[in-house]
């Protein structure tokens, strides 16, 4: 299945605006993040498990156990801080 991945804020600066990935049926947000980290390089740094990263599935905040579906839009972004 196809998943559209979008990156925002500092993640966008490191990885670009986004990409389209092929994922297996039943994949979760966590599995896609792990696959991106496994690429190494900028993906491994930007999405590292030691970094706080928020996720949204189809423009709704979600946790990493959320299941993906064909043509899902998955967004990664850093947590927002206020002042």
Automatic annotation (TrEMBL):
InterPro entries registered for this protein in UniProt: Beta-grasp_dom_sf, MOCS2A, Mopterin_synth/thiamin_S_b, ThiS/MoaD-like
Keyword Nucleotide-binding: yes
Cross-referenced Pfam families: ThiS
Keywords: Nucleotide-binding
Superkingdom of source: Bacteria
Coiled coil: none
PANTHER family reported for this sequence: MOLYBDOPTERIN SYNTHASE SULFUR CARRIER SUBUNIT
Protein name per its UniProtKB record: Molybdopterin synthase sulfur carrier subunit
Organism: Piscinibacter gummiphilus
Lineage of origin: Bacteria, Pseudomonadati, Pseudomonadota, Betaproteobacteria, Burkholderiales
């Amino acid at each position: 299945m196809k998943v559209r991945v979008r990156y925002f804020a500092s993640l966008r600066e490191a990885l670009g605006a986004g990409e389209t990935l092929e994922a297996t049926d039943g994949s979760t947000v966590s599995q896609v993040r792990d696959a991106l980290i496994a690429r190494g390089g900028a993906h491994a740094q930007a999405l590292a498990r030691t970094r706080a990263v928020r996720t949204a599935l189809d423009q709704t905040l979600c946790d990493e156990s959320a299941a993906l579906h064909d043509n899902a839009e998955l967004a990664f972004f850093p947590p927002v801080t206020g002042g």
